[in-house]
Each structure stands twice: as C-alpha cells, then as structure tokens.
C-alpha cells in the first residue's frame, strides 16, 4: 500500500473505480511492474458491466456484446486468464428483426462479406439493397471520414437511404453501437465503428456474446492478476474526497486517508465531476463532464420454463418495446431465461417496471407464440448507462491540467462511443501516459 516515505522514490498509483476502464488501467500498470491500488465503492467489480445475482440466476446489469474488432478488450481478457473460445458464443455479423428483416454475413473477405450480405438481405426491395451497398462503398472511398460531423440521420438522408432502410438497418446499428437515437447521433462516431468492424478483416464484424457474467469475464480475473503482481484491489471502499498533496494526491475514504503519486479516476462521469469539483484548475474539465447528456439502457430478464427457447441465440424485434432478445439458454446454459434489451431514450421510460415487463411478455407471446407465463421477471434500468453520442461532442481528455490526475472511462476523449472497448482503451492510455 502507498506510504509517504516512498512516494518520492517511485510511482504509487491509485485507480478509483473497478469497472472495465479502471481494471484495464490496473492490469496495464501491474504488467509494467508499477505499484497500483484499486478502489471500488461496490461489493463487486465491473461498474456498468457487472454480474447481478437474482433468484439463483446469474444476470448482468446490462446485456452487452463485443465485436471482433474490440482487440484491446479481447487481448486483456486473454492476458488475465480468459479463453475466448470458451468465454464467448461467436456469431458472424447478423441482424434479424423477427419476420421483418434479416441479414447475415457470409464467410468472405471484408468488405465483400458485408456487400454480399446487403445484396442478399431479406425484407428490403432490390433498389434498397443496392442503395445500402453503394452507400457502404462510398463510405469506404471516403475512408469513413467526414469533412464535418452531422447527425447520422442527416448523413443517411444526404445519401438517399430510404426510411425503410433507416428503420430496418441503420437505426438498429446506430442504437446498438452508440446507444443514441439516429436523429441525434454523431455520424462520424458511427462511421468510426463501421470502419473498424466492417472494413478490415471479416472476423472484425463477428459478434461475441459472453457466456459468463460481466464481472467474471474480465474485472474479477483482472483483480486476481493485479494481486498476483503485488497490487491491491479494495471493494466496498468508496473514495469520498481527493485532496492535492505536495508529493502527489491524498485519497480520503471511510477507512482513512492514503497517499499516492498519481491517481487515475475511472468512475462514472457524474461521480468523477463530484470528486473534481473542489479543484479550481479543473473547472473546465468539470464543465465538459457536466455538459454530457446521458442515455438509458433497460434490460428485462424473464425466466420461463426450461423448454421455452427463441429461434436464435440473439435476434431483434421491429418497432416493438424490445429491441434485442438474448436466449440465455442457448448462450450460457440457463434454460428458459430470456433477456430483452431496450437501448436509448423512448416511450418505455414512462412505464413502471411492472408495466414494462408485461409489455415485453405480451410481445414475446405475440411474436413467438409463448403460452407459458414467466416464472419471474427482473427489470434492470441503467438510467445513465452511456453518454449521448452527439455530433462534435467535446469529451474530456485523459490527462487533466493536474499532472498527478488522469481520467479513464468510456466518456473520455476517443474515436469510440460508450462501449467496453472505448472504456478499456481509455484505461490503457492512462497507464501508458504514466509509463512515459
């Protein structure tokens, strides 16, 4: 643990927050042989991507998936002991809006796999399929770069993408990638994701659905890795205040104060702003954080009898409350457990949790003919799940005006929206800055 008598001789680094950003930073620091201590206020690690136990079932506070292009996240999972073949159900790129639209990428080199998938897509006219393929080719010629940012809907309208194309293809992709409605989403950030997922290797567009809960997938393993390398991971240990010190930074907790040469603050944006608000020199950073709007993610878990299954492990619904459905029986060996994901803002926010669950139950009965009632349901609402990824958004840099304080989190500056990969990249960048 950090002591005053050695702070002037070596780096002793505190990481506040045990989510994906914080644990990525901690692993990278531990790998480099640096002394690191992680502070996490909750009992379990993972932040907004963590495991949740309910009625003897293992759930997540949000049903996420990874893409094959999430190289930093996947590499770190392997580094701390994960097995990607065992930990994930890997599916080729596919969009299936039950009964309305379907697209599945064949095993061809990128970007040919996507162009063939678009031209074979079901639920679109031939003209619409050709229009979508031409649009992707145009983006490739543009190197997925815009002269100036705009909303995704404005970009799609400019290039003749029909309303049906938007509703069945581009909006579901935008919501899944940015958790922001297409009408207000940053076109450039959407193109950044399309560039990395669809334009290089075919496997980059693969969808990787975790078979483990999100705490077990990386943060718990990362904590063990950090401890093996001489670090410390403190759970149920909230940081109450940060105070400048002449040889670094003082961290105040209910357990007392500890002193560190540097601090990486990897808490959610709202918590970070609270911790930084007393620093006059950080007022511009706090103002940037305060200016961020947020978008919710609701996950409705429904435990049906074990024989109840969906046609596919993952599929979508068209213009329903439920956007994406995950069959946990096919994914993680939890028969009868269905997860319904509702991303971004919408009418569902006006419903009570019971009302929303009943809407989802009715949809599943209508779409798939389920006659069994669920044995139980659980609604998990992350009302500030992500920042709203809007055009030309000014996001705070990882390095603050204080040389001893850095910020990690999916909301910090970067090419990506609020994804696990964006969070992990920010944590790695903070660790690399300290190494330098």
Explain what you see.
The protein has 436 residues and is of the alpha+beta class. Helix content is 35%, strand content 23%. The protein has helices at residues 20-31, 71-79, 84-87, 112-120, 126-141, 152-158, 163-178, 187-198, 214-217, 219-228, 269-276, 283-290, 328-332, 353-368, 420-435, and strands at 12-16, 35-39, 51-54, 57-60, 66-67, 88-91, 94-97, 101-104, 207-210, 232-234, 239-245, 248-253, 256-260, 262-265, 294-303, 314-316, 324-327, 337-343, 376-387, 405-407. Strands 10-2-1-14-20 form a 5-stranded parallel beta sheet, with helices on one face. Strands 16-17-18-15-19 form a 5-stranded antiparallel beta sheet. It has a 3-stranded antiparallel beta sheet with strand order 5-9-6. Strand 11 and strand 12 form a beta hairpin. The longest helix is centred in the N-terminal third of the chain and has 16 residues, at 126-141.
């Amino acid at each position: 643990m950090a002591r005053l008598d050695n702070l002037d001789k070596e780096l002793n680094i505190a990481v506040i927050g045990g989510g994906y950003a914080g644990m990525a930073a901690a692993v990278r620091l531990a790998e480099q042989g640096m002394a690191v201590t992680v502070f996490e206020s909750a009992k379990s690690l993972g932040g907004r991507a963590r495991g949740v136990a309910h009625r003897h079932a293992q759930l997540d506070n949000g049903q996420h998936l990874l893409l094959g292009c999430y190289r930093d996240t996947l590499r770190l999972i392997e580094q701390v002991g994960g097995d990607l073949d065992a930990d994930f159900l890997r599916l080729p790129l596919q969009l299936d809006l039950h009964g309305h639209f379907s697209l599945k990428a064949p095993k061809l080199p990128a970007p040919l796999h996507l162009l063939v998938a678009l031209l074979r897509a079901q639920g679109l006219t031939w003209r619409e399929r050709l229009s979508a393929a031409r649009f992707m080719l145009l983006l490739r010629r543009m190197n997925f770069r815009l002269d100036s940012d705009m909303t995704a809907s404005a970009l799609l309208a400019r290039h003749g993408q029909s309303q049906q194309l938007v509703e069945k293809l581009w909006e579901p992709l935008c919501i899944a990638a940015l958790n922001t409605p297409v009408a207000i989403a940053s076109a450039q950030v959407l193109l950044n994701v399309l560039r990395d997922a669809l334009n290089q290797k075919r496997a980059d567009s693969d969808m990787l659905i975790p078979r483990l809960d999100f705490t077990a997938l990386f943060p718990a393993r990362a904590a063990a890795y950090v401890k093996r390398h001489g670090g410390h991971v403190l759970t149920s240990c909230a940081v109450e205040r940060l105070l400048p010190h002449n040889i670094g930074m003082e961290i105040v907790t209910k357990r007392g104060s500890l002193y560190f040469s540097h601090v990486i603050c990897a808490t959610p944006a709202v918590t970070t702003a609270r911790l930084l608000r007393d620093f006059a020199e950080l007022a511009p950073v706090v103002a940037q954080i305060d200016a961020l709007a947020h978008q919710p993610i609701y996950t409705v878990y429904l435990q049906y009898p074990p024989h109840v299954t969906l046609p596919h492990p993952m599929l979508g619904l068209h213009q329903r409350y439920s956007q994406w459905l995950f069959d946990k029986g096919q994914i993680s060996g939890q028969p009868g457990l269905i997860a319904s994901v509702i991303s971004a803002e919408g009418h569902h926010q006006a419903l009570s949790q019971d009302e929303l669950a009943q809407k989802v139950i009715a949809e599943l009965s209508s779409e798939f003919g389920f006659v069994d009632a669920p044995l139980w349901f659980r609604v998990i609402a992350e009302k500030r799940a992500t920042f709203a990824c809007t055009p030309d958004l000014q996001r705070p840099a990882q390095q603050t005006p204080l040389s001893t304080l850095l910020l990690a989190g999916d909301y910090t500056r970067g090419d990506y929206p609020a994804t696990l990969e964006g969070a992990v990249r920010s944590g790695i960048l903070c660790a690399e800055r300290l190494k330098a």
